[in-house]
Design goal:
- The chain has 13 helices and 13 strands.
- Helix 2 links the parallel strand 2 and strand 3.
- The longest helix has 17 residues.
- The strands form three sheets. Strands 3-2-1-4-5-6-10-13 form an eight-stranded parallel sheet, sandwiched between helices. Strands 7-9-11 form a three-stranded mixed sheet. A two-stranded parallel ribbon has the order 8-12.
- The N and C termini lie far apart (about 50 Å).
- Helix 3 packs across helix 4 and helix 4 packs parallel to helix 5.
- The structure holds NADP nicotinamide-adenine-dinucleotide phosphate.
Length: about 325
């Protein structure tokens, strides 16, 4: 990449699942990356060390609501990407001050904390997390800053059947709803290209390479591991409808993910009942397949053939 295309990009939440994949890829593409973390802790230490070894500058801001502190950190950045742990409360509490700091620091492009369901295309009321993200979108659109919304479909870990993040093979709602799912490395690679792409200014980007259904995935899993005695659990559409309204708003009972139960079932509702995890029918949405046709994605077949992905260990007993 020539210097002309090199941007100074702050990633707030760079030690996280999405932020980590994105930051490494931005650095590989030749951008100057500023990794913003709340502080060095036992859980993010090795990722911070790895980022520093790659030449990423790490900076620390313990209080992400401190607009003055954040403004100073973001000074000189072209782009600010938020990839923080998300639940409705954190989004509403942390993202407005981060946006205000970006505005004061005269950051050109703001990339809010999305990275999941296409919240711009769905209506209000689908889920509490989505409503919080939609409210932030309104603030971003009104801010005068350039924006990009990144919608990667489902991350493999949560959307392919596996026994690492689920007690048993768990399916939800309509087994025939199509949805896209991608590896975190592919998501990092496409998002890194999209955040610095002039074509994606004031656009949403939908990643849409591996489009599958739960039935297709379960059949594939059983075909690949014919001797393993999988047990199955199905969460019905009726139960999802009930839990998205009445599930515990605070308790996080799932093994993987950071959303409380009620929010999680909002996600299940959007994906496995409405079939709206991904949307290409929004007029502001570009498809990553058109933007980056050369990218070769890891397939669900490749992930499900890997015993470490399915069982968390090299060889199932
Ligand atoms: N498409 C999908 O399948 C999918 C799956 C999961 C998540 N998502 C979405 O992706 C986005 C990023 O999520 P993620 O899973 O990458 O996040 P994450 O890994 O849970 O957290 C990212 C970073 O946020 C910081 N953080 C953690 N707890 C925090 C807190 N209470 N307050 C403030 N900061 C905190 C941590 O950085 P420091 O400790 O270094 O500050 C952490 O490394 C979210 O919007 C989420 O909804 C999508």
């Amino acid at each position: 990449m020539g210097n002309r295309d090199c941007r100074r990009i702050a990633v707030i939440g760079a030690t996280g699942q999405v932020g980590w994949a994105l930051s490494r890829e931005l650095k590989r593409l030749g951008h100057e990356v500023l990794a913003v973390s709340r502080g060095r802790t036992a859980s993010n230490l090795s990722r911070l060390d790895d980022l520093e070894a790659l030449g990423v500058r790490t900076v620390f801001q313990a209080d992400l609501t401190d607009v003055n502190g954040l403004t100073a950190l973001l000074d000189g950045c072209d782009t600010a990407v938020v990839a923080l742990r998300a639940n409705a409360r954190l989004i509403r509490e942390l993202e407005p001050p981060i946006l205000e700091a970006a505005r004061r620091a005269q950051v050109r492009r703001f990339v809010p904390d999305e990275f999941g369901t296409h919240t711009k295309a769905i209506e209000y009321g689908v889920g509490t997390l989505f409503d919080a993200k939609k409210d932030i979108q309104e603030l971003v659109f009104a801010s005068g800053l350039e924006w990009t919304l990144l919608f990667p479909g489902g991350i493999f870990d949560y959307f392919l059947p596996n026994l690492r993040l689920f007690e048993r093979i768990t399916t939800f709602g309509n087994l025939q709803c199509p949805f896209p799912t991608h590896s975190i490395d592919d998501i990092g690679a496409i998002c890194a290209r999209a955040v610095a792409d002039p074509r994606t200014a004031n656009k949403a980007v939908q990643i849409y390479a591996n489009v599958v259904t739960q039935q297709y995935l379960v059949d594939m899993l059983v075909r690949m591991w014919p001797h393993y005695p999988f047990t199955f659990e199905h969460v019905s559409t009726e139960k999802i409808l009930y839990l998205k309204e009445h599930g515990d708003p605070e308790r996080i009972s799932a093994k993987g993910g950071a959303e409380p139960d009620r929010e999680r079932h909002g996600i299940n509702y959007a994906t496995y009942v409405l079939g709206r995890l991904a949307c290409l029918d929004d007029p502001d949405t570009l498809c990553a397949n058109d933007l980056y046709p050369d990218h070769v994605y890891t397939t669900p077949e490749e992930a499900l053939a890997d015993p470490k992905f399915v069982f968390g260990e090299p060889c199932p007993s």
